[in-house]
Q: What sequence folds into this?
């Protein structure tokens, strides 16, 4: 009995020492951040910016891997099943919270299968259209969509994407269904909007600001409560015609559940360093987004926020459910 207890203790000690060594040594090879959307889109842009800077802090290369499809759930599922050693991470947005309600059978538990690392950014969205869509302002757009209904095509990144959520809320508010076209991310959807193959899209400013400023697409409104400093002339949807409309997007960084705490803490410290990096701060500002304050780029803050967002969006999505595509 005594021998068994001793050997169990020794085993436990070895395990603990192993974790400590692993954490101390971490990272000793490149770290991969899975982006659950196609390259060239807004989530990809955020991942590449912070990935580069986190790599400097961790003194290791950070590789971005795009696993698009099914509104971000394919990539998230991939990370949920990855080895929990800190070398495979997920950068996701509000979809991590909304998918929990939108999908009846997610192959992972959005809340419990991940170890949160920290919040990353707050990002407004913009309702944008192909350059020659007739409506001149947001009020006219509402009337145009109500008149043309499913003749209007709306691009999104699949059920669970932020663009899906914004479209769902918009269609629910104006009680009209458009034809939705799902892409693996809004990077490719933007190409089709620029080419005029689709009419409308609601997407993060990180993907739309350059095209709006360059006059390549039409912008109607922002989805946040207040206007965006980088696009000061663009009204909020609330101001422009849909009272109370608000969709604010946030990004979070996750490891698989069970990732050793010292490893998660190292990743959080690298994230906090990246969010203070002047290059990242400046580029984020140009793209109409903001890094979160350091006290929100923590495992605790992301865990609490994710839980609150799942609770907040569940009834809203259920109420708008008849318009889910
Ligand atoms: N912005 C996209 C969405 O959630 C996803 C992406 O491509 O980053 O709609």
A:
């Amino acid at each position: 009995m005594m021998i068994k207890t001793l050997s169990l203790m020794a085993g436990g000690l070895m395990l603990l020492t192993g974790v400590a060594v692993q954490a101390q040594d971490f990272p000793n090879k490149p770290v991969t951040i899975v982006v659950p959307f196609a390259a060239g889109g807004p989530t990809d842009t955020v991942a590449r910016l912070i990935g580069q800077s986190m790599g400097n802090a961790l003194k290791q290369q950070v590789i971005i891997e795009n696993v698009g499809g099914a509104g971000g759930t394919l990539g998230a599922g991939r990370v949920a099943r990855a080895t929990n050693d800190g070398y495979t991470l997920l950068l996701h947005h509000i979809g991590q919270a909304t998918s929990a309600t939108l999908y009846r059978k997610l192959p992972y538990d959005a809340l419990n299968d991940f170890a949160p690392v920290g919040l990353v950014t707050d990002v407004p969205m913009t309702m944008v259209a192909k350059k020659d869509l007739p409506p001149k302002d947001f009020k006219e757009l509402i009337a145009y969509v109500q008149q043309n209904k499913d003749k209007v095509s709306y691009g999104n990144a699949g059920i669970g994407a932020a663009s899906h959520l914004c479209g769902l809320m918009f269609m629910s508010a104006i009680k009209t269904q458009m034809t939705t076209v799902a892409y693996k991310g809004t990077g490719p959807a933007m190409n089709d909007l620029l080419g005029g193959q689709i009419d409308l899209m609601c997407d993060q400013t990180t993907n739309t600001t350059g095209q709006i400023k360059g006059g390549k697409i039409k912008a109607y409104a922002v989805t946040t409560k207040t206007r965006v400093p980088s696009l000061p002339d663009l009204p909020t949807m609330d101001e422009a015609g849909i009272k109370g409309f608000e969709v604010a997007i946030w990004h979070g960084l996750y490891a698989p559940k069970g990732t050793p705490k010292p490893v998660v803490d190292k990743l959080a410290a690298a994230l906090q360093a990246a969010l203070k990096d002047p290059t990242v701060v400046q580029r984020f500002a140009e793209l109409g987004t903001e890094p979160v304050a350091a006290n929100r780029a923590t495992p605790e803050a992301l865990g609490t926020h994710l839980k609150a967002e799942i609770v907040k969006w569940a009834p809203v999505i259920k109420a708008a459910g008849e318009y889910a595509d």
Summary: The chain has a mean pLDDT of 92. Residues 2-25 form the longest helix (24 residues). The longest strand covers residues 114-123.
